[in-house]
Amino acid sequence: MTSDQSQTARPDGLRLRARLRYLYHGAQPAAVKFRLMVILVDLIIIGFFLAAPILKEAGWVFYVADYFIAAILGLDLAARAYAYSDVRDWLKKPIVWVDLFVLATLLFPAWLANFGFLRLLRFWSLLNSDLFWRTIGRRFDDTRVEEITRALAALITFVFVVTGFVYAYFRGKAEHINGYLDALYFTVATLTTTGFGDITLPGNWGRVISIVVMLVGITLFIRLAQTLIRPHKVKFPCPTCGLQKHDPDAVHCKACGQILCIPDDGD
């Protein structure tokens, strides 16, 4: 009886895994539409995270929405893990741990309330995920758009994570930081090294945070500028040395001299 049940249950499990792999990794139109829906839901959730400091005033309604989003993210992560060929390898990805931490802040809002601002890391993990680039990025045959998008995502995520941190820990403690817009204003003014001085963080820790924001902000700006100015490249692995990026009209690999046959836009 038990063996019969296991024999009938195993194919169902295999069919479910095959279906999830088709949806999360397939190139067919139905799978692409499914992933587009997942990305759209992700963007709506990120919008909720962005508005969370204001929505918290709604009381229990906010926490109901919090747990509802936790259920959605939990199901999505479980489905991605089950669809992956090796769960241990899947867990080695930093993006996965970012998403798991975001899920933890949703499941335990009372204990992890001070880390709620880190939920916006979901925006960074989304734009750096394989799912996003298999769905949206598949329209591009070069790496320029991808590099610009990743650099812009890092900059935007940093701005709003710092804003959330300043709002959570310095609201009412620092002069003139009474709302989320004040925290955003301070972050942008510090990050761009404008330094108007009308809003500052108190104490030595406030100065340290300001220095870190300026240094990281400059680094992210430089990275974005480099991706915008850098010459156009296409991703075409060299069959000999493995060099990934080449000029669109390259005939030989710059690293080893191997003859290349890079397809043009008309192919």
From TrEMBL:
- Chief location of this protein? membrane
Give the highest taxon in the source lineage: Bacteria
Q: Domain Potassium channel, which positions?
A: 157-229
Q: Which keywords does UniProt give here?
A: Ion channel, Ion transport, Membrane, Potassium, Potassium channel, Potassium transport, Transmembrane, Transmembrane helix, Transport
One Pfam short name:
Ion_trans_2
Taken from the UniProt entry, a GO cellular component term is:
membrane
Q: Where in the cell is it found?
A: Membrane
Q: Tell me a Gene Ontology molecular-function term this record carries.
A: voltage-gated potassium channel activity
Parts of the chain that traverse the membrane: 34-54, 60-83, 95-117, 148-170, 182-199, 205-225
| Matches recorded under InterPro entries | K_chnl_dom (IPR013099), K_chnl_Slo-like (IPR047871), K_chnl_volt-dep_EAG/ELK/ERG (IPR003938), Volt_channel_dom_sf (IPR027359)
Topological type in the membrane = Multi-pass membrane protein
**Record-linked PANTHER family:** CALCIUM-ACTIVATED POTASSIUM CHANNEL ALPHA CHAIN, SLOWPOKE 2, ISOFORM D
The protein here is known as Ion transporter
Source species: Brevundimonas naejangsanensis
The organism's taxonomy opens as: Bacteria, Pseudomonadati, Pseudomonadota, Alphaproteobacteria, Caulobacterales
